[in-house]
Amino acid sequence: MANNSNRHADFVLLTLAMSATVYLGFWFTYFGPIVAGAYPKSSPLVHLHGWTFFAWYLLLPLQAALIRTKRVRLHRRLGYTSLALASVMFISGLTVVGVQMRDALASAEPSFWSAAGPAIFATLILFAAFYSAALVLRRNGAYHKRLIIVASAAGMGAAAFRILGVVFGQVMWVLPASILMTNLFIVAGMVLDQLREGRIHRVYLIGLPACVVMELGLYLATPTPAGQVIARGLAWVGNTLGFLY
Hints:
Elements: H1 4-35, H2 44-68, H3 72-106, H4 112-136, H5 141-154, H6 157-168, H7 174-181, H8 184-197, H9 202-221, H10 225-241
């Protein structure tokens, strides 16, 4: 069985891979167009959500590296920054989804948001739920770091969507595939557990099915009456918080 140093190194590499995926995905539709001066005019809230999102995923491997180098005090201090970023990410993301759903439901034409809004909402809820659990269990390192992995994977759907969209084009299966694809990072964590610990931690055993069921479930439920209730609820959020947009 590997020592603690090797286990911490595994988490650094895993979080680096997650952050690299996020930045690769958004290079195609955000960073690249900005560098080229071709990014369309958008609400300041969209940029706020984007940059807090990028900062959070920049902080992710840094926090893992601080534990690896036993700089626990600095890790805890930066945890407050992580909490602030996550809060802004969630509120701004919920507002963006709500406004887009409001506009989608007001239109007679089908759109990306009318099909994807509830599934994107699912990723926000999963991120918030598992990140909150990680905060509650922050003194329990084994639970905390794995809950952060699950939360981080749940939040990566937009980046995966952009990568698959570039590779395969905007075909129908790309949306559900991109949301589910991020769970491969949870699977990677499970593999590392099995290799290093000889067993898979219960956080992953709960987190993986919870993410798959909620993400795929809300995507499939979107055309149903129950899904439309969620869609109208998101539109209500857009009406309520639209002044921030």
